[in-house]
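hi!! sorry for the late reply, been swamped w classes. u asked for the two structures so here they r. pasted raw, havent cleaned anything up. first the sequence of the first protein and right below it the tokens
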Amino acid sequence: MSEDLTEGFVCSNLSDDLSGLSFKEIPIEKVSKNFVKIDIKAASLNFPDLLMTQGKYQNKPELPFALGMEGSGVISQMGSDVKNYKTGDEVMFGGWGHGAIAKSIVVSESMISLKPESYSFEEAAAFKTAYLTAYVGLIRRGQLQRGETLLVHGASGGVGMAAVQLGKLYGAKVIATGTSDEKLEIVKTWGADEVLNIFENEKVSFKDRVKDLTNGKGADVIYDPVGGEVFDQSIRCINWGGRLLIIGFAGGTIPTLPVNYPLIKGFSVVGVRAGEFGRRDPVLGKENIDIINTLADEDKLRPHICKVFDFKDSKEALEYLENRELIGKVVIRIN
């Protein structure tokens, strides 16, 4: 297929210090069949964007590649087989991939959804990855039930805040953890029943407090995008029959599991890959997206954006993400 060019924020070589990043013209495919071209208005950052620049994420795009897993914008061209959209539609897009931090992108019709009318382009760009991960994790994989206790780690990050909001919407008692009292106060306004700073005397400590808050039973579902010591303590404060959801390893350490723990306590450790879930079961995958989009249209879900950067400041935005300064989502405004 022939190609066009667009300006993007590009990773040309892998590095641990972001030195391989710059603005460059990159090729994008010509629009054909069931593809659309989107003039991008905004893109949001996710922790995997940082990992991809270091070669540490499971998805390893061929170099060079534009960063950005999700965004929003306006359809400017459509392929002949596109049925559900028209030129000028305001849409959001996302999924397994890259290329959103650019002036334009060509994606399959299956990757886009109409932007909720009440959402800004910035909010639409920050929506899909966090809420789809939370929905697949909590509902599909975790089988969260009304009245259960949900423990959300990394609750001030994008996927954490989405899990807090979605868990509360589905009737759970939500305990949210983090490392900043100030950030956790904001999380509490988003629906958390209890908030716990996991650092106590400069050590990770929360298992006893979780047990106190659950009358000694422990949490029914634990949502863990952190790993490391957080995982190690989670297996010590999970209820009988609980589900420990592995979302990622933002803490930098991949933990190991003494298998006598799930044997004795009867709990499950469940991997969550929201994008792969939809690829393995496209029908259910579409249903997942339709459900979270409907909740967004009904204004029951809305991402928290802590800072918006201009396109020219994309590297500064990634540094902001790397330094763990964010609460919720960081967005780059492009056009």
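now the second protein. again sequence first, tokens right under
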Amino acid sequence: MMKTKITPVACMFLLSSLIGGCSTSTLPAATIRASLTTTVDDYNYLIGPGDRLTIFVWRNPEVSGSFTVRPDGKITTSLVEDLEVTGRTPTQLAREVEKELSKYIRDPIVTVSVGGFVGPFSEQVRVIGEATNPRAINYKEDMSLLDLMIQVGGITQYADGDGAKLIRIVDGKQMEYSVFLEQLIKDGDISANVDILPGDILIVPEAWF
């Protein structure tokens, strides 16, 4: 029986053909998930991956403890496996844990406290483009555009600050608003300050010189 020798070049050609046959030219666009906070008056902190939770069960220290939310948004406690916690307030989670523990404990009373404060991605505020330090920021109650600019260190010398855009999901639709960073930061025009909501995206373009 004759054996066919495959050269390194032929091997690479065969591999690229296999990969090319399975590839696609485009990927589906990522979904910008709407925040559950629609106004500055209804903000409640939501638990997210990376948060540290302390779950206290009254008179049941053996099932109490500290837990870190996994990347999949779940935790595992002494009696409850793979409990989904992302997107819940601490109070909502406490009620859910009570419901699960009631299968094993009579009338459990649970409190949940949070540390770390990472939160879900849908609640973070993102600044991209010509900011001094563009990044994602954990939202804080009553955060304004000026607070956001302080967090990212302002804008660069190449930025078109008054051409900046704020992207926000409103009633399930992506809306675009003009914001005026030059007026706010360099001119000190406080009327250019606006409220920021969880999930907002601030885009700071480069100026055309």
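hope this helps!! also noticed smth abt the second:
The mean pLDDT is 90.
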